[in-house]
Design brief:
Length: 149
């Protein structure tokens, strides 16, 4: 052999030792071995999953049997009449629409809130009027605003 071998006959460490790196305690080898074992377990788990996911081969179907002879049904029993229709239930009044609200956060403006709910920031005055805001340029953080439809 042209390449020198280390004491155990391995060639892999000689390149590192030639570059000035010595690994006397084989640091990192355990981690590398654990990673390889983990990859092998994952591959085995995937193979098992594929085996379980594959549909089992169905047994061959038995040959078709001769159809039984068709006979006239005996006297049929009459079906019971459906129960009388119940009186229609009174309808409940339509549920009130849930009111939309928005809690003001730091940096919010009525324009941004209107743009979020209406798609148009110019609708900010609707929100201001619904909440009795005298100065739309000043809203306090933490205030819960009603958002009209």
């Amino acid at each position: 052999m042209n390449q020198p071998q280390d004491k155990e006959g391995h060639l892999e460490n000689l390149e590192h030792e030639a570059a000035g790196f010595m690994n006397p305690f084989n640091w990192g080898k355990k981690k590398k071995e654990e990673e390889e074992a983990k990859k092998a377990q994952e591959a085995q788990a995937q193979a098992q999953a594929k085996a379980q996911a594959a549909p089992p081969q169905a047994a061959p179907a038995p040959p078709p049997a001769a159809a039984p002879p068709i006979t006239e049904p005996a006297a049929t029993t009459p079906k019971p009449a459906p129960p009388p229709a119940a009186a229609p239930k009174p309808q409940a009044p339509p549920a009130a629409k849930a009111e939309r609200t928005y809690k003001v956060k730091s940096g919010d403006t009525l324009w941004d809130i209107a743009a979020q709910y209406y798609g148009d920031g110019r609708q900010y005055m609707k929100i201001a009027k619904a909440n009795n805001i005298a100065n739309p340029n000043l809203i306090n953080v933490g205030v819960v605003l009603k958002i009209p439809d």
